[in-house]
Write a structure and sequence with these properties.
Layout lengths: L5 E11 L4 E5 L2 E10 L2 E4 L4 E4 L3 E7 L2 H10 L5 E14 L5 E14 L15 H8 L7 H9 L4
Parallel strand pairs: 6-8
Antiparallel strand pairs: 1-3, 1-7, 2-3, 3-6, 4-5, 7-8
Pfam family, one: SSB
Protein name: Single-stranded DNA-binding protein
Keywords: DNA-binding
Length: 154
Amino acid sequence: MAGRPRLDKHTATGNLVDDPVTREVNGSKLVTFRLADTPRVFDREANEWKDGEAVFYDVAVKSVRLGENVVGSLAKGNRATVTGNYEAVPYVNKEGSPGLNHRVWADEVSASLEFATVEIAQNQKPGLWAKAMDAQVAPVDVEQATVDREWGLV
């Protein structure tokens, strides 16, 4: 992939063009969807806000758990935010004109609350976490406790 522009962290917010799809690639599951990010721009002559030119992202989710949650939570038309590794892939279309395919390998996907409400349903937790949830007592987050202690918050 040498020569392709990459960003380690890129965030885009837009509307899903289609429902997320689960695919099998080389024996692994992968969830993909397209996201249309349409910026709002102010037209000074008309003195109003208008849609700018949309940027379309091909989004892929490798994490099985995140992928399952995306498929179970999002649908065509929903507004979402994705964060992950961005890659610009140049191509030439049928007419011979160059183009740029925008790809994001997402490690975070979330529903936008700008125009919708959501109800959060926790996934089943394995092992001790599930027992703690059953008892309605949260387990101690050792990593967070260490950070709190190092930053003098406790």
